[in-house]
Amino acid sequence: MIARKKYFLTAIIQLMFLLLINLLCLHAQPSKFVIMTDSRGDDIGVNTPVLSKIINHINANHGDIKFLIFPGDMVSGNKIYPDSTYIQMLHWKDVMRPLYDNPGLIPPKIFITEGNHEIQTRFDENNLRKVFPDMPQNGPDDEKGLTYSFDFGKVHFAVIASNRWYYGNPADTTDDRRDWRYIRHLDWLENDIKKAKENGSEMIFVLSHEPVFPAGGHLRDGLPNLRKDLKLPLDSIRLVYFNRRNEFWKLLKDNGVSAYICGHEHLYARQTVDGVMHITAGSSGAPLYNFNPKYGEGKDEKTETEKEMSYEDALPYYKTLNYDYGETGNCQASPDFFGLKVFHYILFEAGETGLKAVVYGAYPKKGTDDELGSEITILDEFLILPR
Ligand SMILES: [Fe+2]
Questions:
Q1: Within a domain: residue 23?
Q2: What is the whole-number distance in angstroms between the Cα of residue 36 and the centre of ligand 1?
Q3: From ligand 1's centre to the CA of 117, what distance in Å?
Q4: Residues 265/221, Cβ–Cβ less than 8 Å
Q5: How many whole angstroms from 293 Cα to the centroid of ligand 1?
Q6: How many other CB atoms are found less than 10 A from the CB of residue 242?
Q7: How far is the CA of 122 from the centre of ligand 1 (A)?
Q8: Which of 10, 74, 105, 267 has its CA 20 to 30 Å from the CA of residue 93?
Q9: 260 inside domain
Q10: What is the pLDDT along the chain (387 residues), one digit of tens a residue?
């Protein structure tokens, strides 16, 4: 009798243990989330028709997402009137209202950081904090709410305000914009990733506005910041910025980051460099860009022409960036480069071995760069694996 009781007790304890493990495993699995950037446009700073269509598509088809991350250029901003930028950001929140009203999302529901368009005057960062007051506050001291990290299941997200990394003249010791943020960022990021791993994170995502490997439209800037009229060899100022960008990418590579996700370039692109996925999720409404120039390709009249450059002018940039792939064999950074000139968002969900990414998007109307010309459909799918 006693032996039977002991047997039942052991069985019940084992069952409870299994239930607990099962429960923990379920909680360890990340649910769905969405990443997208760059929605600026002409309606109070926002491309309202395109962004609304995308948000409604997300809510109708993936209303069970847990959060959305939007690293920058929500709005056009204003160089002179910070109040105008403030109103634009409030309008952006209105357009995103269907997601804010979705009770299934976890606070703050939409994670943001700054792009270059929100921040054009010295008042803009504080206005950004006022409009988005509930971002995590665990970043570097002067960057609370702009640079931060958070965990979801076994995935760790570090969101970085990279917008001002490359401003200022590094050779001018009186220029207080030089080294404004960069070094603190790198220290903070490295510690943050190490801590996350010690705490059991299995995948690390780093998100920011600026591309490390510009794919189209920002070959002259982005994080390499090689600037206009590049002549080789690099001069000392260009070397400072370029080396910092290389140091940042090395940090991601050496610390097992699975993916770096950015915007700034208004196109969709993905490639794997040094084992790290570099994903540009760059338009949920902002005017679409062409990819890095190819010899003989005519300029697209409707694309922002000041950002266009000839293949010949692009060559020293390709050489400096070690771009050995792409359509001309020297215009992109990786043999697996894939890109589309589309409005889009990326849905992530847990797969068996990693995170499955599904890109939903639509092509522009013929002859335009800021109007939808097709229904939103699946345009690409890929897996992001732990490293
Ligand atoms: Fe931008």
A1: no
A2: 13
A3: 6
A4: no
A5: 19
A6: 18
A7: 17
A8: 267
A9: yes
A10: 455 555 555 545 444 443 443 333 334 445 899 999 999 999 999 999 999 999 999 999 999 999 999 999 999 999 899 999 999 999 999 999 999 999 999 999 999 999 999 988 889 999 999 999 999 999 988 789 999 999 999 999 999 998 765 555 666 666 555 555 554 578 899 999 999 999 999 999 999 999 999 999 999 888 998 988 899 999 988 888 898 899 999 999 999 999 999 999 999 999 999 999 999 999 999 999 999 987 544 444 444 444 567 888 899 999 999 999 998 889 999 999 999 999 999 999 987 788 999 999 999 999 999 999 999 999 999 999 999
Ligand 1 centroid – CA 307 distance (Å): 12
| Number of independent structural domains in the chain | 1
CATH of residue 298's domain is 3.60.21.10
Instruction: Give residue for tokens 């309202």.
Output: 48
Provide the 10 A C-beta neighbour count for residue 98. 14
Compute the distance from residue 114 Cα to the ligand 1 centre, in Å: 9
CB 43 within 8 A of CB 359: no
User: Which residue range is the domain that position 60 belongs to?
Assistant: 33-384
Token duo for residue 222: 């982005």
Contact 87, 131 (CB under 8 A): no
